[in-house]
């Protein structure tokens, strides 16, 4: 009887379509049916016929057994386990209703399982923190990925050298588009956002196409194409680099892989030797370098942190990107800047004030509490946009190097780092013991706050000398 039962796979079909980045119209064209019929199939208002199932598996190279397998029994079992949680003890949940849910509403079943899984993970993390207050907090995949990059000082020799070879091959072919066509039989197409379904880049294996959002600017288009080249042609080098460490979670693994692919893409667009020579010739002028290599200001600033090749070293830089709320979305250290591990939130650093002067480069010498001096340039950068109805995101980026290197930069040429006035900043308020900072948000760790019944200073807190 089970063999003759109609096959309803709506949620699975919808999930497949979204994973492939297809619209209902595009999938309908691939399968030779109407978009409205695809919509009916996805809503489980029509069963999937044997003929259509064969067309699906052939068009998208799927495993028939894996795609068409009946998930209802597995869903029913897993939902039954979830509903045995004491949280639901006072609710009457007959087994028949659970089976009906799994069979008739697989999408709702999947949502319930994901939600309960997330709830369990958070409960376990909270319990571990409470039971072991002295232990480190649960692994943060973003911090783990940043640590991995920092350990290598943001230079990956195998990826960089292979990317340089690829760049030379691409130059001989004439362009990345021509190279992809010749080497991979892949056609690059630029399509509007409604067709791209909010993807900036999508590899359409079925039609041997690399699809790019046509609202991207030139630098972003090139970077997306280069990212695909990195994923397919630097696969071995990326895997070998990642094999050096065991990551604590799949999320951390994905973030590191993404970071290394982006590194490879930048190395393809700005090959090490040529870029390093241009850096010297242009005295680290980021805007001039961006014009020369057809890259964005941020892409060049990012690439400047990677110039650690033995025998071809350039000035080591620290890079940070923040939003107007002060959230750090990218942090790369090649300069031993203490902000890399602990901070980035001092409001006296110009990276937080350049939002008032968009597009303008602001220079600043920095004096840290431990006596280290750095030089920084900061500027706003924008992402998104490209059409009237698309949101634009504005962030601020900063590059910082040891003050002794500043005279080599066009931004501080002729200055004397030993005598120039520097802004006293802190790594973060919790680790800064400057007593007279009017911008302080919280007191430093380990310092007692003094009463101010009879005296109030310019700083929000006065603390003892202990």
From TrEMBL:
Domain of life: Bacteria
Pfam families, sorted: HTH_3, Peptidase_M78, ScfRs
Gene3D superfamilies named among the record's database cross-references: lambda repressor-like DNA-binding domains (1.10.260.40)
DNA repair among keywords: no
Keywords of this entry: DNA-binding, Transcription, Transcription regulation
UniProt-listed InterPro entries: Cro/C1-type_HTH, HTH_RamB, IrrE_HExxH, Lambda_DNA-bd_dom_sf, ScfR_C, TransReg_Diox_bact_type
Domain HTH cro/C1-type per the UniProt entry, residue ranges: 13-67
Family annotation (PROSITE patterns): HTH_CROC1
Family the entry assigns: Belongs to the short-chain fatty acyl-CoA assimilation regulator (ScfR) family.
Alphabetized PANTHER family for the sequence: HTH-TYPE TRANSCRIPTIONAL REGULATOR (PTHR46797), HTH-TYPE TRANSCRIPTIONAL REGULATOR SUTR (PTHR46797:SF23)
Protein name as catalogued: Short-chain fatty acyl-CoA regulator family protein
